[in-house]
Amino acid sequence: MRMTIVTALTVTAIAAGAVTATAAQAAPSQLRSLGATHIVTATVSTPSAISGANYPATATCADTEQAVGGGVSIQTGFPPGVFAVIQSQPSIDGKSWVGSAATAQKIPSGRSLTVTTYAVCAPFGV
After folding, report:
1. By residue range, what is the domain housing residue 66?
2. What is the pLDDT along the chain (126 residues), one digit of tens a residue?
3. Is residue 17 part of a domain?
């Protein structure tokens, strides 16, 4: 069962630009807990990265789980700034974390690149 908890946020402006915010959540009887989380990874590696190429990796949770967070890391033989993370987001169905990296500038061939995507997966409680 997929459940969405909606939180209403009320923002009140106060003199001198200060802002306060209060959140109203669903009643406790409507809340479901997430079970213990764990991390799932997906890695794509290339021994010779190519200029202009996109290197995607998708970490997918089990059928009974939801991706509640994630991220992407890049390991490369290039100096910092040559590659950039261009995507790090949940999949449309919420079961995976999608990440990718691409070259940020023209590169010489012959150096490796590894992109690892991490999904924080949690089972739904009952």
Report:
1. 32-123
2. 333 333 333 332 323 333 333 334 444 444 455 568 999 999 998 877 777 788 999 999 999 999 999 999 998 877 777 888 999 999 999 999 999 998 877 766 667 789 999 999 999 754
3. no
Distance, in Å, from the CA atom of 101 to the CA atom of 84, rounded to the nearest integer, reads 5
- Rounded-to-integer distance, Cα 40 and Cα 61, Å: 7
Residue type, 114: T
SS3 of residue 15 by DSSP: helix
For residue 45, the domain's CATH number is 2.60.40
**Residue 10 in domain:** no
For the chain, the domain total comes to: 1
